[in-house]
Amino acid sequence: MSTTSAVRKAVIPVAGLGTRFLPMTKAMPKEMLPVVDKPAIQYVVEEAVSVGIDDILMITGRNKRALEDHFDRVPSLEATLEEKGDAKKLAAIQESNNLGDIHYVRQGDPKGLGHAVLCAERHVGNEPFAVLLGDDLIDERDPLLGEMIRVQKETGGSVVALMEVPQETISSYGCADVTAVAGEDYVQINGLVEKPDPADAPSNLAIIGRYVLHPAVFEVLRETAPGRGGEIQLTDALQTLARREGEGGGVYGVVFRGRRYDTGDKLSYLKAVVTLACGRDDFGSDLRTWLKDFVADGAEAPVTER
């Protein structure tokens, strides 16, 4: 059993431009897009906090000030709600203020996920850490991050989250070549292939946006040359670590079979909002009834789709 330190810190890269959601994201970060009544980024932070991580670093870029404002106090708003006796709304906004100790570092130039992770080196130091991507929302009823932390502690390497997808869609993901580990419910990663042709893919296991990384990844990222688009790819660094033996070597995968909501494109985002809204205690039942009627009526979109 490895004596690896407990995971105390999480890194959340949020420097992306969100061009797929223009014009909405012209002046608002894509991470602030509402998912029912909370911005998408809050779900991600809450996931980290739920496993005991309360030191969170966001890797930001230009036009991301709204993220800092969201997790900061607004005393005037709190005072107004308190005067009105609106305890429910007051508690809701105070919840986002008190999720953890949140820090911010500018990425500067958008040089890829690997570069974003490298920007966290000084803050993280020499200890394992989690990386959570905001496009993937993991249902709070289906634990994933805690299991990944357990596997990292047991193996002493790095851990990625995997999910089975239809073979014909694997070309949209990074794909893992894996070997079963005897007596364990995780797998060992032999290699990672970025967006392979379905006929050439080594499996139907796609990489999703959760990682628990050994700090050896920083050394590798510093030596990783930019790839396609001039970006430093995290998968390239993980390839190197997968082949390494000794301290920080080895990459493992936890196959997630729970509920994951993809907010990375418009249709998937809308599905995520509807799915989570339907599960709400306060109005989920009414929404499900309305949706059944809407579908039964065969209603068509009132405007031309874009």
UniProtKB/TrEMBL annotation:
Gene3D superfamilies: Spore Coat Polysaccharide Biosynthesis Protein SpsA, Chain A
Limits of the Nucleotidyl transferase domain: 9-274
Pfam families named among the record's database cross-references: NTP_transferase
The EC number(s) this enzyme carries: 2.7.7.9
Enzyme class: transferase
Domain of life, source organism: Bacteria
CDD domains hit by this protein: UGPase_prokaryotic
UniProtKB keywords: Nucleotidyltransferase, Transferase
Family statement: Belongs to the UDPGP type 2 family.
Matches recorded under NCBIfam families: galU
Protein name: UTP--glucose-1-phosphate uridylyltransferase
Recorded name of the encoding gene: galU
